[in-house]
């Protein structure tokens, strides 16, 4: 089935209408704000300085029907939540040595962490309450 206005299925419109925040973002704020930038995932960030405080900045996700807010990079997260006033397009942030690339959370998928004893993890759980420390092998 082909796409109509960028949507794969007619039911995508129902999902957008049911999600009030997404509806407001697309139909009320999307066209009126100034495009500040785009991240590596394709999400677009907007700002409108004529509106009230704390409603000036928002994101329009690349995939409107299957979006995940955990995929927002840290530098854009700081700008969206007013932690800093510098958008990553206007300021070069120094990355900490320990920083890793931000990605979408795996919670709720088969790739999520499953401890021993979880029904989806094939490893058997050791019911021993105490394990002696073993030094690493050299």
UniProtKB/TrEMBL annotation:
Subcellular localization: Mitochondrion inner membrane
UniProt xrefs under InterPro entries: NDUFA12 (IPR007763)
GO biological process: response to oxidative stress
Gene Ontology cellular component annotations, sorted alphabetically: mitochondrial inner membrane; respiratory chain complex I
Domain of life of the organism encoding this protein: Eukaryota
Keyword Mitochondrion carried by entry: yes
Membrane topology: Peripheral membrane protein
The keyword Transmembrane appears for this protein: no
Chief subcellular location: mitochondrion
Pfam families reported for this sequence: NDUFA12 (PF05071)
Coiled-coil residue windows: none
Keywords: Electron transport, Membrane, Mitochondrion, Mitochondrion inner membrane, Respiratory chain, Transport
Record family assignment: Belongs to the complex I NDUFA12 subunit family.
Cited function: Accessory subunit of the mitochondrial membrane respiratory chain NADH dehydrogenase (Complex I), that is believed not to be involved in catalysis. Complex I functions in the transfer of electrons from NADH to the respiratory chain. The immediate electron acceptor for the enzyme is believed to be ubiquinone.
Protein name: NADH dehydrogenase [ubiquinone] 1 alpha subcomplex subunit 12
Organism encoding this protein: Tetradesmus obliquus (Green alga)
């Amino acid at each position: 089935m082909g796409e109509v206005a960028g949507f794969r299925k007619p039911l995508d419109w129902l999902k957008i209408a049911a999600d009030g925040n997404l509806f407001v973002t697309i139909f009320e704020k999307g066209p009126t704000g100034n495009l500040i930038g785009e991240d590596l995932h394709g999400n677009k960030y907007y700002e409108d300085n004529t509106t009230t405080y704390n409603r000036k900045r928002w994101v329009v996700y690349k995939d409107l029907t299957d979006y995940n807010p955990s995929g927002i990079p840290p530098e854009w997260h700081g700008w969206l939540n007013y932690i800093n006033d510098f958008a990553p397009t206007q300021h070069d942030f120094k990355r900490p040595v320990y920083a890793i690339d931000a990605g979408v959370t795996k919670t709720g998928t088969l790739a999520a962490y499953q401890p021993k004893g979880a029904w989806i993890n094939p490893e058997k759980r050791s019911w021993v309450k105490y394990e002696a420390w073993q030094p690493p092998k050299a």
